[in-house]
Amino acid sequence: MQALVELIIGFVALVAAAALSQFGLQLDAPEKPEREIHRVHDECDAKPAAALFSASDKA
Hints:
It contains 1 helix and no strands. It is 34% helix and 0% strand.
């Protein structure tokens, strides 16, 4: 008996979804799009690294 009730409820839900989809309504929640992560390098704040040169007197 329980299976028959669940079958009828499922059939009614299927018919309701089909009827509502004719009007553009969806019962399923839309999936959220995955967030895109873009790593950017901000060059205007970065100062160039100082160069260190060493001279030796060895010849």
